[in-house]
Specification:
Helix 2 runs antiparallel to helix 3. This protein is 36% helix and 27% strand. A 7-stranded antiparallel beta sheet has the order 1-2-3-9-8-7-6, covered by helices on one side. It has a two-stranded antiparallel ribbon with strand order 4-5. It is of the alpha+beta class and 196 residues long. The chain is built from 3 helices and 9 strands; from the N terminus they run H-H-E-E-E-E-E-E-E-E-E-H.
């Protein structure tokens, strides 16, 4: 009788051990499989290609305040479209302004913003008033005052990769054209440095 009980106890023990091994073995394999699948999906998923800096990241509020000696607030994004003498292009813009006061707009374009896909540097003028070259920037640059509104002017900068425009408007007349130009150049220096 004791022998029979011992045999039964041994059978039950071996049976129980077998039951314990099976889930551990299969569970471990499943876990490894799921882990491998997760790793594969993480490494083979779509990879985002970093783009150039956003237009409003090229100059922050402090940079604009330093250039124009006035707090013009946080820049706001907009998109623009230009047609000059048959040349058409789009731009990403960042705008700073105070109510009934100074307004500044930075416009940034690349080759893909032109209708023919080729970066161009259109000659800047204002109703046939030619622009004047601007020295001191590490790029081709020119400035023109608006023929109709003397309180507005534009700085255009051309690099191998970008067409940049900085429009300055001083509706209260607090800035003369020379001041607007020099302040636009100061902002352009920051923008060009951040573009690298």
């Amino acid at each position: 009788m004791r022998t029979l009980l011992a045999v039964l106890a041994l059978v039950l023990t071996l049976s129980a051990c077998g039951d314990d091994d099976e889930p551990i073995s299969s569970g471990g394999a499943d876990d490894e499989s799921e882990s491998s699948s997760a790793s594969a999906s993480e490494t083979t998923g779509p990879v985002e290609v970093p783009e150039g800096p956003e237009v409003c990241e090229l100059a922050d509020e402090a940079d604009v305040e330093a250039a124009f000696a006035e707090d013009l607030g946080v820049g706001t994004f907009s998109s623009g479209s230009t047609d000059e003498d048959g040349v058409q292009w789009q731009s990403d813009n960042c705008n700073w302004e105070v109510d009934e006061g100074t307004e500044v707009s930075l416009e940034v374009s690349t080759a893909e913003d032109f209708t023919d896909g080729q970066l161009q540097c259109p000659e800047l003028d204002s109703f046939d008033v030619p622009s004047t070259p601007v020295e001191g920037l590490d790029a081709e640059a020119s400035w023109v005052n608006d023929k109709i509104d003397p309180n507005e002017g534009t700085l255009r900068i051309c690099t191998d990769t970008y067409l940049l425009g900085i429009d300055v408007e001083s509706p209260d007349g607090s800035r003369d054209p020379e001041t607007m130009q020099s302040q636009a150049v100061a902002l352009a220096e920051v923008v060009l440095a951040n573009l690298g």
